[in-house]
Design a protein that fits this description.
single chain, globular, 27 strands, alpha/beta, 568 residues, seven-stranded parallel sheet
Length: 568
């Protein structure tokens, strides 16, 4: 056989190979609307038939399937080439085909602030919490990063047996067995089909929570009463931690992974299973941005399941709200009447107030330190100044419109630490987001201040030959002295770009410095992720009182009921 003949045969072989062998494939999500059969096996079989028609091989079709959505709706996730995805999109029974997207994970005081006191006084009329019997036996599905079952917030002492209507499972895995579930956490599943092997190696391959996000959310919704907790045992935010519907049951659906986000294919599989399992409420503190909606939620709502979403953390930029379809409740984040004031004393004895989590005795000093004003605290600016052993003021209001404060703060902390500074005072348009500050613990004090306070510090620095500053330990303040509620600066705003006629977000709830369970401790988190579970819990309470109400009725009751707040 000569060279020309060999080349021709090789070319013919390549031409005849199936497309899947020649082109790279990736996960696509195929949506087919309402299922055509009640039998899940028949729904799955129809998915295999459609894929076989495209692949030309039954075995290849079966091997391509990542998930088959067969309980609440019809669809599947499969590894496809671009041309195979285009071929599927042309089929009349297929509604949409799109690449797998990756969503991001978007309280000792907050429930009292909302007037949902656990123990009503004898002279008081019973509130919603008591009328709902604390959410007794309402089943809430939490689609998030898993849960830490050993937390005291999930103790099942005094609970009755699991409701007979429950059809879910407790899926075993790494550091998780059947005993990890109880009469509080009645179900748990995990989904890894859309996650790479490299990411899975760094995570618990089970419903166990590594990031703490899902645990925080679940305990905010339904955590039992835990006395004498505070932020990392520091005394900050001290009180009784509990969820809004503390007697409700939890079913956990782990779809979010550290380093791997929350794949849409996995989220849809969780929704599909949750519908079949028998949840009453679905709570999702995640999103992929404005316009990227999760279609499976419609089928949950059609089956009487209320769905509550976080609205996103891309504020204060307009038209950034996510999860904005009309049938779900979309939640913005607001402040509560608690702050963590931190006294900043200048060398001229002027006392100013910011917020911090500065409690660690190893870095608390009563001494003044040199102050340096670096404006925008990027690596280049810090390298041009001698900041070693000094407290750095980062104040660049013109940059706030370009970079979100939460990103700029994290970068400023990292850069000032690398430059060997001994403290940070960071200016942002609202000094109420403390999410990044735990990174400073045990290393240096980090304080956030608003632009007005920052301007006064900068003015002092400008007119003083040897400016110095001192940062005092943080305190906790609760009550009327804290102006609240206010919409958090990071909370995504409308208008609702995909559906301009629908106002979104629907409602705001506490989402700033919320204390809840993370691992075996209690941590302050901020975000619409923290606001969403507050509304999920209220939804559960209304479901307990009005079991025959539809999701639309419950949503309507929440967004049309309120108390007039007069600020003076």
């Amino acid at each position: 056989m000569d060279l020309r003949t060999t080349f021709s045969c090789a070319l013919l072989l390549v031409t005849l190979l199936p497309l899947s062998a020649k082109a790279s494939s990736k996960i696509y999500v195929v949506y087919m609307g309402e299922k055509k059969h009640d039998d899940p096996s028949m729904v799955t079989a129809s998915h295999h038939d459609i894929l076989t028609s495209v692949f030309g091989s039954k075995n290849e079709a079966l091997n391509s399937v990542v998930y088959s959505y067969k309980h609440g709706f019809s669809g599947f996730a499969a590894r496809l080439t671009e041309s195979q995805a285009e071929a599927l999109a042309k089929l009349p029974e297929v509604f949409s085909v799109k690449p797998n997207t990756y969503h991001e994970a978007h309280t000792t005081r907050s429930w009292d602030f909302l007037d949902l006191e656990y123990d009503a006084q004898p002279s008081q009329q019973q509130g919603l919490l008591q009328k709902a019997n604390y959410g007794e036996d309402v089943i809430i599905g939490v689609i998030d990063s898993g849960i830490w079952p050993e937390s005291p917030s999930f103790d099942d002492s005094g609970y009755s047996p699991v409701p007979a209507r429950w059809k879910g499972i407790c899926q075993a895995g790494q550091a998780w067995d059947a005993k990890s579930c109880n009469r509080k956490i009645i179900g748990a599943r995990w989904y890894s089909g859309g996650v790479s092997d490299e990411v899975l190696k760094e995570n618990y391959m089970s419903p166990r929570d590594l990031s703490g996000h899902g645990t925080h959310v679940a305990s905010t919704i339904a955590g039992g009463q835990v006395w004498n907790v505070s932020y990392k045992g520091s005394g900050l935010g001290a009180g009784v931690a509990r969820g809004g519907a503390p007697r409700s049951r939890l079913s956990i659906y782990k779809v979010c992974w550290v380093g791997g986000s929350c794949p849409l294919s996995d989220i849809l599989a969780a929704i599909d299973d949750a519908i079949e399992d028998g949840v009453d409420i679905l709570s999702l503190s995640l999103g992929a941005g404005a316009g990227d909606e999760i279609f499976g939620t419609l089928h949950a709502v059609l089956r009487g399941i209320s769905v509550v979403f976080s609205g996103g953390n891309d504020g204060p930029v307009p038209s950034t709200v996510s999860n904005a379809v009309p049938w779900v409740t979309t939640v913005a984040a607001s402040t509560i009447d608690r702050s963590f004031p931190t006294l900043v004393t200048l060398g001229n004895n002027e006392n100013l107030v910011g917020q911090s989590l500065h409690f660690n005795a190893t870095v608390i000093s009563g001494d003044f330190k040199a102050l340096v004003y670096v404006r925008r605290c990027d690596a280049q600016a810090l390298a041009s100044r001698n900041v070693t052993g000094k407290i750095v003021l980062c104040y660049a209001p013109q940059a706030a419109s370009v970079r979100p404060p939460r990103v700029a703060l994290q970068d400023a902390i990292n850069f000032t630490m690398e430059a060997s500074a001994e403290g940070l005072i960071f200016a942002q348009n609202a000094a109420n987001s403390l999410t990044s500050l735990p990174v400073c613990e045990g290393i240096m004090p980090c304080v956030v201040v608003d632009f007005e306070i920052a301007h006064r510090i900068a003015s002092y620095w400008d007119i003083t030959e040897n400016p110095v500053v001192k940062v005092s330990p943080t305190a906790s303040v609760v009550g009327e002295g804290v102006l609240a509620p206010r919409v958090a600066h990071f909370s995504s705003r409308g208008p609702n770009t995909p559906f301009p006629a629908i106002l979104k977000p629907d409602v705001a709830a506490p989402g700033v410095s919320i204390l809840a369970a993370v691992g075996g401790s209690y941590i302050l988190f901020s975000g619409t992720s923290m606001a969403c579970p507050h509304v999920s819990a209220v939804t559960a309470l209304l479901k307990a009182v009005h079991s025959n109400w539809s999701p639309a009725m419950i949503k309507s009751a929440i967004i049309t009921t309120g108390t007039h707040c007069a600020f003076t």
